[in-house]
Design goal:
The protein is an alpha/beta fold and about 280 residues long. It folds into 2 domains: about 5-75; about 85-275, Vaccinia Virus protein VP39 (Rossmann fold), CATH 3.40.50.150. Helix content is about 45%, strand content about 20%. It contains 10 helices and 10 strands. The protein has helices spanning about 5-25, 35-50, 55-65, 65-75, 85-100, 120-130, 145-155, 160-170, 190-195, 230-240, and strands at about 105-110, 135-140, 155, 180-185, 185-190, 200, 215-220, 240-250, 265-270, 275. Strands 6-2-1-7-8-10-9 form a 7-stranded mixed β-sheet. A 3-stranded antiparallel β-sheet has the order 3-5-4. The longest helix is centred in the first third of the chain and has 25 residues, at about 5-25. The N and C termini lie far apart (about 50 Å).
């Protein structure tokens, strides 16, 4: 590796650090503890698609043009999702978590980092089929207003339906997936009944506090974009949001095993990353 490359890379990292610091001080969004590789990819992608010469020029544009900042905010958001993503996860929820949730008179569920809403509506369908939707309040949150707008509308491209239907069937769905939407032109519109018990709200896992006390937190494929210290911070927030005996669900590549919150949970299913908050913590 040449010295020139090393120096250039060091300068690039410094520019990115200054950019993130500027965003935090100007707009209050804190990306400083996001995974460096993810942030670098998104910054370089935005730089390549612009006519700006350097990240320093990019920083200037962000500080003095709020509309341009919104583009960066969209770049940094994690919006990879689909209905019944990882069907085996939803199947395990039906088998292991839903029977326990049925013992409560009223249920609260928090989808943290809900993106465009596909997985929130997947949960609503599952709850409806299990007879729980009418006594469940679902909170769906994200820091990106654009994806929240899409989530509230519940309108998705019709060319995704085949994949969604396949996922639904593999997840243990007991009806026809077509029962839950209306096709119109090139889109499908999800039934209003699925939206009736969902509250969509702005919430930033990095900077905001506990959102609500809930029975189940779903935060899948979000932590993988954070560094270790931020993962610990967010897991602590999620743990404090759960009632004793409540459930935490993470993404397939995420785990609490090496986190500070590990002692607070028992593992329900290690493969599907489902954990149960202990009823009481034994003191040493």
């Amino acid at each position: 590796m040449s010295k020139t490359f090393e120096e250039d890379n060091k300068t690039l990292n410094i520019e990115i650090e200054l950019l993130l610091e500027a965003i935090f001080k100007k707009y209050g969004y804190d990306f400083r503890d996001y995974g460096k590789a993810h942030i670098k990819r998104r910054v370089l992608h935005r730089l390549a698609s612009s006519k700006l010469e350097s990240i320093s020029h990019l920083q200037h544009a962000i500080l003095y043009d709020e509309e341009y900042f919104k583009l960066i905010l969209k770049d940094f958001s994690i919006n990879v999702t689909e209905m019944f993503r990882d069907p085996s996860f939803y199947k395990k929820l039906r088998e292991e978590v839903i029977p326990l949730l049925k013992t409560y008179p009223f249920i609260k569920i928090w989808h943290a980092g809900c993106s465009t809403g596909e997985e929130v509506y997947s949960m609503a369908i599952l709850l409806k089929e299990e007879g729980l939707l009418d006594r469940t309040q679902i909170y769906a949150t994200d820091f990106n207003q654009n994806v929240l707008k899409t989530a509230k509308e519940g309108i998705y491209p019709i060319d995704k339906v085949k994949e969604y239907t396949h996922n639904y069937q593999k997840s243990g769905g007991i009806h026809s997936f077509s029962d839950y939407y209306t096709a119109k032109f090139e889109s499908v519109i999800l039934d209003n009944e699925l939206k009736s018990n969902i509250v969509f709200a702005d919430h930033n896992l990095v900077s905001d506090k506990v959102f609500a006390e809930v029975h189940l937190v779903i935060c899948r494929n979000v932590l993988i974009y954070f560094n270790k210290s931020l993962q610990d911070k967010v897991l602590d927030l999620l743990e404090k949001s759960l009632i004793p005996g409540g459930y935490l669900a993470l993404g397939s590549k995420e785990s609490i095993r090496f986190s500070k919150s590990n002692k607070e949970f028992d593992t329900v299913d290690d493969k599907e990353k489902i954990y149960k908050k202990k009823l009481s913590i034994k003191k040493a």
